[in-house]
Design goal:
Blueprint: E1 11-15, H1 19-25, H2 30-50, E2 55-62, H3 70-93, E3 97-101, H4 109-122, E4 129-136, H5 138-151, H6 161-166, E5 178-181, E6 200-203, H7 213-224
Parallel strand pairs: 1-2, 1-5, 2-4, 3-4, 5-6
Helix pairs in contact: 1-2, 2-3, 3-4
Amino acid sequence: MPSHDTNSLAHIAIIMDGNGRWADSNGFSRNKGHEKGTENLQSIVKKVSDLNIQFLTIYAFSTENWNRPKLEVSNLMNLLFDSINKQLDILISNNIRVVHLGEKSSLPSNLQKALSKCEESTKNNSGLTLNVALNYGGRTEILHSVRKLVSQNVLPHQISLKDIDDNLYTAGIPDPDLIIRTGGEKRISNFLLWQSAYSEYYFSDVFWPDFTSNELEEAIHTYYTRKRRFGMTKFREK
């Protein structure tokens, strides 16, 4: 849930868009674009950690991405598996905690195991929490929450907003203050639908592989120029 503190920036979420178009524009394969995007993620995670921001959520693979060509999906799954294994020691040494958001059971078994190992190995880290939205869809997440409440025999009239919030993948994680989308598109693509009710959005024309720390700082600067009211006005009756 939002803190209603207009000056705080505890949680940044990123829709990392543009890997394929970056590859096309540079004469590379789409897989090369995903590789470059994964490399760039490492520098952005480090920058967010250095800024002492508490939470970073990345949109790694959506439930709709399964509709992409089978070879591209297979390459993505392999890239994610390799990246998690290669980065585990770095995550541990940098005190970063990893949390998976999404349906793990539909992922390849080796990737499921890698994710579980990463979560278990980093669960006691107290620095940045890196939420990896992998096989994630916002509508599916809300459905998942409602089904959990039904399975607990909660009566319809007893269900509260907090009940739904507490049964989302993000239970216990504050709503994102700032959501960044790279690559020039201006839509939310089924990402954090419930949690983004009062998030600030920042859209960048830069493809994800070229989205640098300077670009991130510009997004953060823009965020701090905005006034968040959460449905209230700036004027209050005396």
